[in-house]
User: Fold this.
Amino acid sequence: MFRVTQEPLNLQALVDYVTDPEAGAIVTFIGTTRNHNEGRRVISLDYEAYPEMAEKELKRLGEEAKRRWKIQRMAIVHRVGRVEITEPSVVIAVAAAHRDDAFQACRFAIEEIKKSVPIWKKEVYEGGEIWIGTQSGQPFNLSK
Assistant:
């Protein structure tokens, strides 16, 4: 399961999806919206993506994780649209026979999502908004 959705994310659905009788470990990661960044009070985040391309890249990350570690199943779901403070924007679940493989695959997935998946994040804060993680690597301030 490698999806981009506008719906709120459901951790239990991903855990259920990756559950496997051969797995002795399920590791999860939930990325949530925090209320501050670089000294600014964050109101919400807005994510945009090209869903077909993003899902293809998420699947590629899952396949790469299976090549590198002994995992049974992996699921990654990333939200697009407005994500309020404390709400999840990304959920990852990995099932493996042993915890080390599950932890490493999960860590790999979140790090690579930030680097290669075409999902863009706009931080809405008091007094403006900034696109975070643009191709230039620098924030783009829309309030100027």
